[in-house]
Amino acid sequence: MPETPPDQDPARDRLRGAFSRPSRRQAVVAVLLAVLGFAFVVQVRDTKANDTYAGVRESDLIQVLNGLTGTAERARREVDRLETRRDDLQDENSARAAALDEAEQRVRTLNIIAGLVPVSGPGLRVTITESTDRVTVGSLLDTVQELRTAGAEAMEFDDSIRLGADSSFENAVGGIELDGQLLESPYTLDVIGDPHILRTALTFSTGPVEALEFDGATVAIEDVEAVEITSVREAPRPEYAELGTGQ
Questions:
Q1: d(C-alpha 211, C-alpha 135), whole Å
Q2: Could you tell me the pLDDT band of residue 176, with boundaries at 50, 70 and 90?
Q3: Closest CA relative to residue 27, chosen from 18, 39, 14, 38
Q4: For a disulfide at 215, which of 135, 145, 154, 185, Cβ 3.0-4.6 Å?
């Protein structure tokens, strides 16, 4: 019976083959072992993390929790305070902007009333033509006053003389003097305001038109969609008044 050579042991060959060519079952077992090993490592790390407060007394844990709660509450209150301050600043800015807009509007209105700026708008053109007799200063002054009462916002004679609150009429050779400047017939008066109301203020019974016609003049009234008044008055310089302290 022939003998098996020492280097050809069948059991050793099978063991070597099992490691060099692993079966499917061995591969599955290897994967399961790897998964179990990973889970073990994660569990150990989690246990170490939980051990941070493992030796802390319950009262100390409560104190730590209270401290964290207090910090969060202070942060919340600070956020509320800052949001309230932000809203207050926005309200202050809005109020300041509204006050500034109102002040600018008042300045514009006062400049228009004082005749310090050019203006345009709907209104009338009134042309007064003398015949043989001169119209009286009183008739022209009444015309201007009635228009002001009716809401005239700006008036100009002969495209050159802006009327103001202190304007004055005087008789002069060859015409009528307005604020030191000579006016000659025909007198042209441009007025900005509501055309219908202004016309009514001129044409009512015993009103300005009737008075001018009694002086012998003819009066033509024309509605104008956009009256252009370009002349301006000089701003008066106060002689005695000064700004108060703190202004």
A1: 9
A2: very high
A3: 18
A4: 135
Round to the nearest angstrom and report the end-to-end CA distance of the chain.
Answer: 134
Which residue's entry shows tokens 């932000």? Answer: 86
CA 61, 63, 64, 68 dihedral sign is: positive
Residue 169 lies in a domain: yes
- Are residues 122 and 217 part of one domain? yes
The torsion angles phi and psi of 52, rounded to 5 degrees, stand at -60, -45
The residue count for the chain: 247
Quick check: bond before 186 cis, omega within 30?
Answer: yes
| Position 108, amino acid | R
State how many domains the chain has: 3
Alpha carbon distance 70, 78 (integer Å): 12
pLDDT digits 0-9 by tens, 31-62: 555 555 555 554 545 555 455 555 656 666 66
What is this structure's pTM?
Answer: 0.61
* Within-domain flag for 141: yes
Rounded distance, CA 77 to CA 63, Å?
Answer: 21
Can you give the residue range of the structural domain that contains 77?
A: 56-114
